[in-house]
Give the backbone structure.
Amino acid sequence: MATSYDYTPLFRSSVGFDRLFNLLENAQRDRSTSDWPPYDIVKTGDDSYRISIAVAGFAEGDLDITFQTNLLTVIGKKQDSPSETYLHRGIAGRPFEHRFELADHVRVSGAGLSNGLLTIDLVREIPEALKPRKVSIDGSALGRPHTAPQIEDQSAA
């Protein structure tokens, strides 16, 4: 049973949260997509994350990772050999696509494939201009009265 939420009332009292509301609406819509293959998302540090996807049977050439402006897409398409005839096929090799919405300033720092696990490392790098800055207090201004500049008025005599 899918529940749909209407975020329209929130638009009346908020400014600049359009992207957040779009993310919530997309998350509701995309919930119907398959969660295969299974994956984990782990916070590995204060500003680092790792996505691990179980891709048993997929080779590096079968996987495509694309990162574009806050969206990470992982696509897997296994190339089957036409000469093989399966008597039983228990290892799923169907194509898949996973999309991950990333926060601002999060980028992919690396990816690897080992023992059937695709790992994608992410790091959040906040630009210097957006980092908090320490403001020094000028102690020499204490004890001096603060005088506001006055505007001279020329009155007609």
Helices lie at 8-12, 18-30. The beta strands are 39-45, 48-54, 63-68, 71-76, 96-101, 106-114, 117-124. The mean pLDDT is 83. The radius of gyration is 27 Å.
